[in-house]
Amino acid sequence: MKGFSLIELIIVIAISIILAVIGVLNLFNYRTYKDLDLTVNEIISTLRVARNYSISQELIEPGSGKKWGVYFGIGDYILYRGENHNDSGKVTLSKSVLRTTVQFKTMPNPADIIFEPITGKLDSANIIEVSLKSNPEMFKTITIDQNGRIN
Questions:
Q1: In this structure, what DSSP letter does residue 97 have?
Q2: pLDDT for residue 25
Q3: What is the number of other CB atoms lying within 10 angstroms of the CB of residue 117?
Q4: Which residues, including other chains, have CB under 8 Å from residue 47's CB and lie 6 or more apart?
Q5: Which end of the chain has fewer CB atoms < 10 Å from its terminal CB, N or C?
Q6: Is 86's pLDDT higher than 70?
Q7: Does 11 fall in a domain?
Q8: Segment among 3-12, 27-36, 56-65, 93-102 with least mean pLDDT
Q9: In a domain, 112, yes or no
Q10: Residue 68: its pLDDT value, please?
Q11: Is residue 27 part of a domain?
């Protein structure tokens, strides 16, 4: 007799379903890991913008000597010009909200990272850790040394 039996057909379908489920789960995990990478790259980019503006004094009236900084909240971070995030004369350039799949594992201390005019230095080095909400052990670290170098 030629052809497939019902049992063979059911086994092939079951194996196909299992492989499809594994593929979909891996795709979902890949997306969350990419969210972590993208978030870390966006934070690094924002920190570099703040440092560059502070060094160059770009977008500021001449001779003002204003500082640029990034304030880190629970689920967001803000790029601003001013002495700190509570400065009444502060000018906010952008506010970014974290993706729903990531969180701050370690917040910078203090919450403001403020770059000195012209030099781009900080009062002290700082560390920021960003992790996946679904797996807090999967995280990436951003370090900013006292000279303002961001890694």
A1: E
A2: 80
A3: 17
A4: 70, 113, 142, 144, 150
A5: N
A6: yes
A7: yes
A8: 56-65
A9: yes
A10: 93
A11: yes
